[in-house]
Amino acid sequence: MAGIQESIEKREILSFLLESKTEELNKAFTDGVDSIGLKEAKASWKKFRINNGFSSYADLLTLPSVQHKLKKSKIYTVGLTIQHANVSGIETCAWRGLCTSVCVLDNGNGRYSSVQKARNVKTQFLAKHPADFLKILGSEIKKHSDENEKVLVRLNVNSDLRWYQILPSLANGHPKMPNVYIYDYSKNPAILQGNGKVGEKYRVIYSVNEKSELAKVQSFVSRGGTAALVTNRKKNGKVLASFMGFSVVDGDLSDDRYHESGVWVDLAAKGKARNMSEMGFVKNIY
Predict the structure, then answer these.
(1) pLDDT higher than 50, residue 4
(2) Among 5, 138, 157, 255, which is disulfide-ready with 29 (CB 3.0 to 4.6 Å)?
(3) Beta-carbon neighbour count of residue 55 at 10 Å?
(4) Per-residue pLDDT, 279
(5) d(CA 248, CA 283)
(6) Which residues of 120-138 are buried (b: 16+ CB within 10 A; e: fewer)?
(7) Backbone phi, then psi, for 141, in 5-degree steps?
């Protein structure tokens, strides 16, 4: 628990480091969309992987064919899966709390050491070579944009980076990718000050946690925000029709959060989280 309680100021926060290079990284992302310097960036990523024990190149984005939650959405959805918390040696979840000990991304394929290592290496590459990373990311999103009628991108599958501040050129809609829409979950309480739309094409869903004041979250939802609750609902159980005056949707049926507003998202507690209802992380609303 000591690591969880550690103050933000004492940790090296990846999001803050990237935000300090916004201008440079937006240019790198746009260069990647236009395939400028892409060959060199890919060579850098391949070399980094080989130096860290892997034998070949690998794409950055996670496809719906290998991630069951992304696959549930009707719209083609891809995600960026870096390492959570400070497992890689650098903090990617600045506002984390009790969720760290029961992160669902340690389940499924995440329980394999090779998968954890791949996430660590990807995160370290982003921290050490952010411009090369952003060039590759831009090229991959552009590829999916060209191949699909509409694309949803979840940049924080495991993490909680403020991508809308790192890449405003994407958050506000890149002119060469008008069919791309971004969504993420975040525990950052600053999100509650607005309605979750942090860019013209970027929606952030607030993740309710043990530190949340539900009255403030309710106000957020009343302004059109979307808030996700981990609840004591049984697996495959029916969700409540409403909670605190607003509709509830079943977050386990689809991960398309971009097209929702003014609702609560009910996520049934899974794994070890089922035993955390007395600690405030899981909300007992059933």
Answers:
(1) no
(2) 138
(3) 7
(4) 62
(5) 14
(6) bbbbbbbbebbbbbbbbbb
(7) -65, -40
Which residues are CB-contacts of 172 (< 8 A; sequence separation ≥ 6)? 199, 200, 201, 202
Question: Considering Cα of 256, then 258, then 263, then 264, what sign does the dihedral take?
Answer: positive
Neighbours of 246 (CB within 10 A): 15
Question: 196-251 pLDDT, tens per residue?
Answer: 999 999 999 999 999 999 999 999 999 999 999 999 999 889 999 999 999 999 99
User: 40 in helix, strand or coil?
Assistant: helix
Please list the residues that pair with 152 across neighbouring strands: 77, 181
Q: 281 and 210 in contact (C-beta within 8 Å)?
A: yes
pTM over 0.90: yes
Retrieve residue 82's tokens: 């870096």
Give 186-252 as a DSSP string.
E--GGGGGS-SEEETTEEEEEE--TT--HHHHHHHHHTT-EEEEEE-PPTTPPPPSEETTEEEEETT
Task: State the sign of the Cα–Cα–Cα–Cα dihedral 260, 262, 263, 264.
Answer: positive
Distance CA 60, CA 44 (A): 13
Residues 6+ apart with CB under 8 A from 277: 232, 269, 283, 284
Structure tokens at 201: 């094409």
